[in-house]
TrEMBL record:
Keywords: Hydrolase, Membrane, Protease, Transmembrane, Transmembrane helix. It comes from Streptomyces coeruleofuscus. InterPro entries: Chloro_Bact_Ser_Proteases, Peptidase_S1_PA, Peptidase_S1_PA_chymotrypsin, Peptidase_S1C. The keyword Transmembrane helix applies. This is Trypsin-like peptidase domain-containing protein. Belongs to the peptidase S1C family. Residues 229-238 have a biased composition (Low complexity). Residues 1-10 have a biased composition (Basic and acidic residues).
């Protein structure tokens, strides 16, 4: 059925089925269509200014440190907070990801002096070849040879040293296009944070170990005398240091300095000195500087090697010292 019906009381249209009344011709016509004005052409200077502001904002926000370094020259250090992700997102938080991202920025250092020769590690901080390492690695050196992760060899010169902080800055000769590490922020570190160490223990370049931050603000005492720093005991214990009134890995001598260090259980051995301690985002958060080995206290081979007591100079100490080192300090 197609019929419709109305319930009682419902309103019925009296005009239903009738012709609609015509439109009154005296009514005013609708307003004429006026197209919207075309947008004004933006001034090129304004566009350039906005682009510049965007770049600055991105820089402040973090995550663009390496790009800024490349734009401003190879003497600009890539620095950021620990929130910057140097590691690709697909490998974020993995030791393998950190190793792949940061290993190209870690070098092996061989230094010859009147006291003998020493092997250590260093961290590339500019693409032009500035490298941070420990003072005791290059102290008194007459010749320095640096080998990068890809096997290339360079000669290097000492730019500045700070024995009180056990830091040194060296510069490669005729180097360019190197991958600089990103210096993070050590102020926010907490006990238990995961870390990775990369260096050249016993000349085994590119060695990667991992662990955690075991303690903060350890008062570690190391020698500042270059001859003492270059000495190696028969057991190969490496760099001597003092902690809690006790001396480890040999005699620290009478000329010493004390600094606040990060303690880590990431395996460190002789040759790791000057290498990198890295957070899981790939930022450098410390420069490895001392380790404890019980080999000097016992002849048993079961006691040799790292026992998970390593120390690193916080990266904020390094960043605060860079201007002084670049100026040629010899303290």
């Amino acid at each position: 059925m197609t019929e419709s019906f109305h319930r009682s009381g419902e309103y019925e249209n009296p005009y239903e089925g009738q012709q609609q009344a015509p439109v009154n011709p005296e009514w005013p016509p609708p307003p004429a269509y006026t197209p919207a004005p075309a947008p004004k052409k933006r001034n090129r200077g304004t566009v350039a200014l906005l682009a510049a502001v965007a770049i600055v904002a991105a820089a402040i926000g973090g995550g663009t440190a390496y790009g800024i370094q490349e734009l401003t020259g190879n003497d600009t250090v890539a620095a950021s907070s620990t929130s910057t992700n140097v590691v690709p997102s697909s490998q974020k938080g993995t030791v393998a990801g950190v190793a792949k991202a940061v290993s190209p920025s870690i070098v092996e250092i061989s230094a010859d002096s009147n006291a003998g020769s020493s092997t250590g590690s260093g961290v590339i901080i500019t693409s032009g070849g500035e490298i941070v390492t420990n003072n005791h690695v290059v102290s008194g050196a007459s010749q320095i040879k640096v080998t990068t992760n890809d096997g290339k060899s360079y000669s290097a010169k000492v730019v500045g040293t700070d024995s009180k902080k056990d830091l040194a800055l060296i510069k490669l000769e005729n180097a360019s296009g190197l991958k600089a590490a990103t210096l993070g922020d050590s102020s926010g570190l907490q006990v238990g944070d995961q870390v990775v160490a990369i260096g050249s223990p016993e000349g085994l370049s590119g060695t990667v170990t991992s662990g955690i931050i075991s303690a903060l603000d350890r008062d570690v005492t190391v020698p500042t005398d270059e001859d003492q720093g270059q000495q190696q005991s028969p057991q190969g214990d490496g760099w001597p240091f003092e902690f809690g009134g006790r001396q480890f890995n040999g005699d620290t001598g009478s000329d010493t300095t004390t600094y606040k260090a990060l303690q880590t259980d990431a395996s460190l051995n002789p040759g790791n000195s000057g290498g990198a301690l890295i957070d899981m985002n790939g930022n450098i958060i410390g420069i490895n500087s001392a380790m404890y080995s019980p080999a000097g206290a016992a002849s048993s081979s079961s006691d040799a090697g790292s026992v998970g007591l390593g120390f690193a100079i916080p990266v904020n100490t390094v960043k605060a010292d860079l201007a002084k080192l670049r100026a040629g300090a010899t303290d």
